[in-house]
Amino acid sequence: MGETRKGERPMTVQRLELDHITCRYGETQVLSDISLTVKPGEFVSILGPSGSGKSTLFKLLTGARRPEAGSMRFDSHTLDRAIRPFAFMPQRDALMPWRRIIDNTTLGLEVQGVRRAEARRRVLPLFSEFGLDGFEQHYPAELSGGMRQRAALLRTVVQDKPMLLLDEPFGALDALTRASMQRWLEEMWSQHDWTAMLVTHDVREAVYLSDRIYIFSPRPARVVREITVDLPRPRILDGSARARAAEIEADILDTLFNAPNDATMTNLEEPR
Ligand SMILES: Nc1ncnc2c1ncn2[C@@H]1O[C@H](COP(=O)(O)OP(=O)(O)O)[C@@H](O)[C@H]1O
Ligand SMILES: [Mg+2]
To answer: Same domain for 62 and 128?
Structure first.
């Protein structure tokens, strides 16, 4: 341990490593033998149908649930209650309606014990980059859906944790707003040195944003495929890059549609 094998670059060190993770709710098996990795600075997506177990995976990472089997390591240390390396953006935007935007964006820091004045000092310079200039004193209900998501994302990234967990951050937005938010996030991604894991059921979103994608089967989720997205960054998809993106999307859709035919899968339907 600790020794780098010959020819190995530091980038091959894993930031996050999940090994053979299994999770169930009572009788219901949700995650089945999930193994995956995320390298420092990598953007990895989990793509899977609704109800497959994607949010459950984040519950395991954030410590809200424990896996029945398997191991989770972060920077080579076993993940436990003492190690909380994630800034987590939950599936719903979760802004508190009675707090002004400025006070919503400082919330994550305040929970960590940072004093409000200091938290504001850290958050305010980022307002223009997040397209929220002038809305510091507004309430969430006074913002568009896209702005609310940017505020939620600002609250997440300002916590300055080693890794971001984003659970369907744009799922509630209309298609146009979602597309512009994806573009914005990809630009931000190019400018910052973030490590991120995104959960989504949107194939195009996964392809546009990710370095790698893990495709989950329907519940109980297992990894049916891992895809490296070989598109240039920044992701200005013109000409051949656009054609390549469409090709990857079609390939992923094939995998998703064919996954239920696998003989090992039993729970294809959501329970009524
Ligand atoms: N607290 C819970 N108790 C029992 N079943 C749950 C609970 N939370 C989620 N489930 C079930 O586990 C499965 C996976 O849920 P989830 O991880 O939220 O899926 P996804 O995020 O991929 O849509 C679903 O079938 C869901 O009904
Ligand atoms: Mg979910």
So the answer is: no
Which CATH number characterizes residue 71's domain?
Answer: 3.40.50.300
- Separation between Cα atoms, residue 116 and residue 232, nearest integer Å: 40
Q: How far is the CA of 20 from the centre of ligand 1 (A)?
A: 19
Q: Is residue 185 a part of any domain in this protein?
A: yes
158-177: per-residue pLDDT in tens?
Answer: 988 999 999 999 888 888 88
Pocket of ligand 1 (CB under 6 A): 25, 28, 30, 48, 50-56, 219
The ligand placed nearest to the CA atom of residue 51 is 1
175 and 252 housed in the same domain: yes
Pick out the chain residues at pLDDT < 50. Answer: 1-9, 11, 261-272
Distances in Å between the alpha carbon of 257 and those of 3, 48, 49, 155, 189?
A: 43, 11, 10, 36, 30
CB 172 within 8 A of CB 145: yes
Q: Which tokens sit at 24?
A: 């169930």
Angle at 231 between CA 225 and CA 234, to 5 degrees: 130
Total domain count for the chain? 2
- By most ligand atoms within 8 Å of CB, the mutation choice from 32, 219, 256, 272 for ligand 1 is 219
